[in-house]
Amino acid sequence: MIDCSGWKGKAKWIRAIEEVKEPLPEMDKIKVFIDSKNPGGFSWIVPLPDKTLVGSLSYSNPKLFLPVVDKRLIEIHGGSIPRVKPIKPQSSIIVFGDRTGLIKTFTGGGIFGIAELISSNNYTKAFSELSKEIRKQYYLTTLVEKSWRIWLSLARIYKDKTIKAEKEFDFHSMLLFSH
Hints:
Blueprint: E1 2-3, E2 12-21, E3 31-33, E4 42-47, E5 52-58, E6 73-83, E7 94-95, H1 111-119, H2 123-146, H3 148-155
Parallel strand pairs: 1-7
Antiparallel strand pairs: 2-5, 2-6, 3-4, 4-5
Helix pairs in contact: 1-2
């Protein structure tokens, strides 16, 4: 049996919005913005060759924290994201999608987790590795939210720093822990 019925447990819901705009050819780095009035949330500008992604997420209204980019709006999307801890699946049932709780803590995406599970030769091992990362993200996010003012000060360490990502899946805990 395979269960893809969506998330059924408790969750902290965060709202997100992302605008797709014309490219910013003069910009070549992702910019992340943290606002003292947006605990647990942040905003971003992601320049790509064919477009620019401008977004924000917040427990309140993400539009309040959306960076202003003076380019033509092409598309807008967003919605609510459940911040959850992954479930431990029953041994007889294979679960995929949001049902697993392998929901990226910051973006709400589950497709990369699904791809990892489907392409793996060992579902249990892949699930365990992804679950470990999502749990780290969940606990780190909870800690950051509870100590927001302290983290705002510490965030200055990353100001104007480049952080390299090695995988498509959002391994945000690598910011604090080395693997």
